[in-house]
Amino acid sequence: MTKPSNPRWSELLIEAVEQPGLILEAYSRFHGFSLGNQIAALCQCLGRKIQPGPIATLRKWNELGRSVKAGQHAISLCMPVTVTPTTPRKSTPTCKDDDSITIFMWKPRWFVLAQTDGDAEVPPLEIPSWDKATALESLGIQEVAFTHPDGNVQGYAERRTIAISPLAQLPAKTLFHELAHIQLGHVAERGTDRTDLPKNLTEAEAEAVALLCLEALSLPGAEYARGYIQSWYGRGTPIPDPSAQRIFKAANRILRAGELKESRHERAA
Ligand SMILES: [Zn+2]
Question: What is the pTM of this model?
Fold first, then answer.
C-alpha cells in the first residue's frame, strides 16, 4: 500500500459540494474537530474504503484499551505547529522566542475505530444543537430590520449587521450567506473590504459557507446553494485553494459560534 498524500482544501470542498450528505456525516462523526478536518477525515476514510467512525491518536486508542491494527496508515488532519525558522536573524540574537511562528500542517496521527482492535467500547459522540441568537452574539453581529426596497433581495450585510427579508424564500440560507460575507471580510469595515476579490468569487464563497452550514445542521436550502456553486466552478473556474480554506474556516466559526453547551443527547434524556 502506498503512503496516502495530503488532502487539498479545494478538492475537499468539491467533494463536499458534489456529494449530498457528506457534510452532515462528517459533522456528526468527527464533531470534535474543525469542519475542514471533519471533511478531510471523512474523505480519507471513503477514499481508502475504511468504515468512518470514532477517531483518535494511537496514544488515545491505547489509553482506551484498543490497539491500531498492523499496516494501517494514519489519517492526516491539519493542525497548528509552532516552528522556529532555521536561518537565524543576524541582528536579533536575543529574541529567539519571538522568532517562532505558528503554521498549519497536515500531520498523519489519527486512526478511526475500524483501524483498531480491542474489546473496549467507545463512548457515543454528543452533537450540540445550534442557536441563531447565540451565534449572532458570539460573532458580534446584529440582525437589523430589512429596509431594502427591492422585493427580490433576500438579505444583505453591512459592517457587522445583517438583514433578512421577511419574504426570503430560504431564510436560513440567506442568514448563513450574509454571516459568511462578514466572516470572510467581504463587507466594508474600516477599509478591510476585500476589493481584491471579484464579485462572482465573493458570492460563491458566501454561498459555499451557506451550503456547509445548512448541510451540517440539516436545514433546508442546501440544494440551491449546491447548484449555485456547481454552476460557478462548472464553467471552468477552478476553486482557488485559499478560497476553499477561507470557506471552511468561516463555516466552522459560524457553526461553533451557535453551539449550545447543552447537547441534543442530554436534552433528549
Ligand atoms: Zn451575497
Answer: 0.86
CB 36 within 8 A of CB 12: yes
Contact 163, 144 (CB under 8 A): yes
CA of 138 to the centre of ligand 1 (A): 22
* Percent of the chain as helix, strand, coil, to the nearest 5: 45, 15, 40
C-alpha 178 – ligand 1 centre gap (Å): 6
Whose CA is closest to 157, among 144, 169, 172? Answer: 144
Q: What is the pLDDT of residues 99-150, one digit of tens each?
A: 788 888 999 999 999 999 998 888 888 889 999 999 999 999 999 999 998 8
Distance 19 CA to ligand 1 centre (A): 23
Query: How many angstroms separate the alpha carbon of residue 205 from the centre of ligand 1?
Result: 9
44 CA distance to ligand 1 centroid (A)?
Answer: 32
Q: What are the backbone dihedrals phi and psi of residue 168, each rounded to the nearest 5 degrees, phi first?
A: -55, 135
